[in-house]
Amino acid sequence: MSPAAERHQRGPSVTAARTSTAAPETDLDLFSTEVLLDPFPHYARLRDMGPVVYLTEYDLYGLFRYEQVRAALVDWETFSSAQGIAMNPTANELSADSILSVDPPRQRALRKVFDDALRPKHVRRVAGDIEHLADDLVDSLVRRGEFDGVRDFACKLPVEIVMDLIGFPRDEHREELLEWALGAFNFMGPPGERQESTFPDVQALMQYLVTEATPDRLLPGSFGQIVWEAADRGEITGNEALMAMSAYACAGLDTTIAGVASTLWLLALNPDQWRAVRQDPQLVPGTFLEGVRLETPLQFFSRVTTRDVEIDGVTIPRGARVVHSYGSANRDERRYPDPDRFDAHRNPVDTVGFGVGVHTCPGRALASMEAHALFGALARRATTIELAGEPTRSPNNITRGLDRLPVRVS
Ligand code: HEM
Questions:
Q1: By alpha-carbon position, which residue is closest to atom 41 of ligand 1?
Q2: DSSP summary character for residue 409
Q3: Taking the alpha carbons of 184, 185, 190, 196 in that order, is the dihedral positive or negative?
């Protein structure tokens, strides 16, 4: 058994604080396969250790409680994204021109390009297409009875509608894009085998963006064209445009797939909650939020402190990298009563699952529209949802989602 696995079996050890104002330390390997596959009991222990912990394995400070995660995300001047939000220097260097890796005021200029495309009023113009596709899809799946909740249900709208919206050419690379993006998320983790081994995915994604998804090949009227037009007007640089396309590919597809598939899984595990949704379809939006809260498609990102900062008596020094766990914050018992329970009535509009502050997700309205259309159609047609086999998932340094979800509906 590896030292990390042994430590995992023992659980995190808490040592005395190094000085009176130092954070409690743990040698828990937060990014080991075991922890990534079932992080929630570990998060609970980390939250109990204090408002800030120090992860010795990775030389990272960690925020795991809701209040502290939210406060750090809002205070971008102290918790800066400008040195990257990944947990290794190579990924941070490669993404230096990404919107995710800059602070205001530059971030605001880049953000305008995304907001122009993703504003709810613009997204609503595809609402009809989304509703239609969701209806037809659910109709055929209910007739089939058994299907894969990931590939057959959750992937369809991102691949067929969102990839069109972004403007990616309709070619054989669409399926590969999802894999490359998952690899790119893995590559954002702390240095290690999982992180290093996914570099080829990052290269393949960048190669595709440079040679295949070129401005002249993007679909007309797409988000991608808005990005490159901004570059032509000199509002953003060519490299910023490229990184914007990368952000669309990474942030806009697997996240929604993970959120939708996880919500379907939770509904299959909680038939009483599905009955409630069917009886009152107004619960659909809150049910999707509850799925995002509990399973949180993006579990972590990080920031770097621009000054010594004190949080409830614990000092994080200037220049420290601080990982914040959206996934743990969303299960904080200090914020959500009975946090591990899936409750279709909870309606957690305050979830940090879509981020908070200046970097809050600009794609939230689009992702929600897709999910509402899918679960709304399902509520009209499926009386029951049950598992038809064991779901599978792969560990990822950043994302949490399912690979396969065999379900049966009637
Ligand atoms: C369930 C689906 C989704 C989830 C859970 C999600 C989650 C997030 C989170 C947590 C952030 C904040 C990053 C930070 O704090 O640094 C974020 C940012 C972002 N998301 Fe989403 N997202 C989803 C869907 C989408 C979609 C559909 C798009 C676009 C098509 C998108 C595009 C972006 C972009 C471009 C950013 C960076 C914004 C900035 O840095 O200012 N996301 N997302």
A1: 359
A2: E
A3: negative
For residue 17, is pLDDT > 80?
A: no
- 382 Cα: distance to centroid of ligand 1 (angstroms): 30
Q: Which tens digit of pLDDT belongs to each residue from 206-259?
A: 999 999 999 999 999 899 999 999 999 999 999 999 999 999 999 999 999 999
* Other beta carbons within 10 Å of 296: 26
C-beta of 292 in contact with ligand 1 (< 6 A): yes
The rounded Å distance from CA 221 to ligand 1 centre is: 21
**Separation between Cα atoms, residue 21 and residue 372, nearest integer Å:** 46
Closest alpha carbon to 295 in 249, 269, 261, 250: 261
Q: How far is the CA of 129 from the centre of ligand 1 (A)?
A: 22
Q: Is cis: bond before 105, omega within 30 of 0?
A: yes
| Token pair for 208 | 């595709």
Mean of the per-residue pLDDT values of the chain: 94
Residue nearest to atom 12 of ligand 1 (CA): 355
What one-letter code names the amino acid at 335?
Answer: R
Domains in the chain: ranges and CATH: 3-409 (1.10.630.10)
Please work out whether the CB of residue 298 comes within 6 Å of at least one atom of ligand 1: yes
